[in-house]
Amino acid sequence: MAELDVDFVRAQFPAFSDPSLAGLANFENAGGSYVCTPVIDRLTRFYTSRKMQPYGAAAPTAAGGAEMDEAGARLAAMLNVGEDELSFGPSTTQNTYVLANAFRQMMQAGDAVIVTNQDHEANSGPWRRLADEGFEVREWRMNAAGHLDIADLQALLDDKVRLVCFPHCSNIVAEINDAQAIVAAVHAAGAVACVDGVSYAPHGLPDVGALGADIYLFSAYKTYGPHQGIMCVKRELRDALPNQGHWFNADYPGKRLTPAGPDHAQIAACAGVADYIDILHGHHSNDDPGPVARAKRVHDLMRGREIALTAPVLDCVAELDVQLLGPSDAASRAPTIALHHARAGADLAVELAGQGIICGGGDFYAIRLLQGIGIDPAHGVLRVSFTHYTSEGEIADLCTALRRVL
């Protein structure tokens, strides 16, 4: 496939033609991406003509239910999981809390779970709370550079470990962990692998089936969609976990691990994410290799684009008196760049806002990570994050602003 056509990409996002955003460059994409037109159109249609209980006999209610089902089916196909293995929830944080409660009910005295200190708190805190119930919680710790070494995980694995939770990619260090190799190590020890993909999925949907993860979690609002958490759980594990929904919904796969009532409109709008991936594939290719391959091709287009954009930012950062967190190689990281400076991260973000750069400063709910590499979370870091729709001009503006401020 050809290189990503960024002009075509940006035409799919109304934000880039909104006069109120003119002169501003969005470098806070790790906190939530812009929303693509197909998602907006589907959400508008649902709120306009489907806003009633779905799955009824009348045409508009039947159409609403069909659109919700379409979202699950098409995303599951692209992620290479069974349609019944994907479910929606109000957020990834909430989905993780529900999962942790289900494991609490299933685990036995003496069982252990492993978490990392590289995680966002959403994929760490709920599991760590199992210690309050008498279960053992072990921490797979990063090294001083923020890297997770599989050898350190191996030293923690034994026949007591039931579950290992780790990030596909950190929201601060941004190193892309070898999830497939980690999952294989976890499975070899007879444990379940839970992968937090929130910081990875915005850079191209993963092939969850190929990764082999028992649980894979990510957020639609960071993948150009509405505010929903998407959860893939292998069928055998889902059925083994205690039902967390209403007792009479225990036989419905999409409701077993999502006790909250579904957000009909936002679930239906998630099909727009699949629309967007198909639109990009259709623009860049003349054939149709199937949903998994289409998603893989678009993933590779996005990653190729992001690597090319990340390299000049890393070169710029290398010139400045600032500490880069994570790898200095663009190909081994996501385009989420956290910087530690003598000045507080939040203060730097305020100054950059005056330069037309939208970014963030703080701890980004990764307090344990910052502590693990010797940074005071109260001081925080500056984080600039982008994705495939970012332009070369915006990257140049970012580098100019960083040089002025830092």
Shape: globular
Low-confidence region ranges: none
- β-strand amount: 5-15%
Structural class: alpha/beta
End-to-end Cα distance, whole Å, is: 39 Å
**How many distinct helices?**
16
In the CATH hierarchy, what is the superfamily of the largest domain? Type I PLP-dependent aspartate aminotransferase-like (Major domain)
State the CATH class of the largest domain.
Answer: Alpha Beta
What Rg do the Cα atoms give?
Answer: 21 Å
Helix proportion: 40-55%
What do the pLDDT scores average to? 97
Largest sheet: 7 strands, mixed
* Tally of domains: 2
Oligomer: single chain
CATH architecture of the largest domain: 3-Layer(aba) Sandwich
Domain Aminotransferase class V: 27-242
GO molecular function: lyase activity
Protein name: Selenocysteine lyase/Cysteine desulfurase
InterPro entries: Aminotrans_V_dom, PyrdxlP-dep_Trfase, PyrdxlP-dep_Trfase_major, PyrdxlP-dep_Trfase_small
Which SSEs are present, and which pair or pack?
Elements (H helix, E strand, L loop, with lengths): L5 H5 L14 E2 L10 H13 L9 H21 L6 E4 L2 H15 L5 E5 L8 H4 L7 E5 L9 H7 L4 E7 L11 H10 L3 E5 L11 H4 L3 E5 L9 E5 L1 H6 L12 H4 L7 H6 L1 H14 L6 H28 L4 E2 L11 E5 L4 H9 L3 E2 L1 E3 L4 H6 L8 E5 L6 H14 L1
